[in-house]
Please model this.
Amino acid sequence: MARAGGKVILFGEHGVVYGRPALAAGLSTGATAELVSEPGVLATARLSVEPWGVTVDAIAPDAGAVSAAPVDTSQLAQAFGAIVHAYEKPPALHVRVRMELPSGAGLGGSAALSVAIVRAFDEALGIERTPSEVADIALRAERVFHGNPSGVDTAMAAAGGVAVYRKGQPLAPVFVKKPIILVVGHSGEPGMTKETVASVARQHAQRPDKVEQIFAGMEAIVNNGKSALERGDLDSLGQLMELNQKLLVTLVLSTPRLEEMCTVAVKAGALGAKLTGGGGGSCMIALVSDAESGRTVREALEKLGREAFVALV
Ligand code: PMV
Model:
């Protein structure tokens, strides 16, 4: 039995694809993986995912084009194959994963799935790896799911906690002076990470100076956010979330529904709110000062017809 958690990006999504830092926080919910066959029973590795109700056999990473749907079975088979074929001797084991996070919600569900699988295989095969080595293998599957992932999701799924991530560098853990409470709200719109990353790439190709300027602003927000967390300065954190959201809006990454959710959360008492992850749908986060405020903000989002939960960082 192995598990891994999801994550929320507090600051710096999208810039992180271009080598800028992002500040992320691990979630305790994610995915659990359990082996259900003995070695030697199967000819090839098999993956079952609940509650999706799908079972796939691993296919080789070079088996051809796959569709972009989040729970497309051929995509899942290829992502799984990317993990299996990272092993010197690909394990022919059946692994059953239980997802605790929705897929395509921008909460790192697919990275948690991949990291949990690697951990389950490693445990069965007696292989020991560092979290960053586990993340490297899981990243092969993320490339199938997301095209050009920065690696922040897999790094966070493998390590947890609160950390600054920069592509190609080890995670830098952040000391959080006091726990922070976030309300995570789902817009009900499907996750569009692959598409929004491609849209930012087009904008970057057309106006690199303008986009790099926005990324520089995001980098400053990450640095200030880190020190606000270290000081336990919730008011500054909230303001930085508002600022980060404005920069994401200039890259056309928000939606009317996400905007409405952020506005309603702040009206209900949140200190700040922003989309989290790829944008174009999926989730937003709101920072609240205490558990009671968390309940009020969650209820305000639910009144809009959105699903929401409170997470402690
Ligand atoms: O939507 P998510 O949770 O996969 O987050 C995407 C974050 C981006 O910075 C937009 C992309 C990436 O790979 O880091």
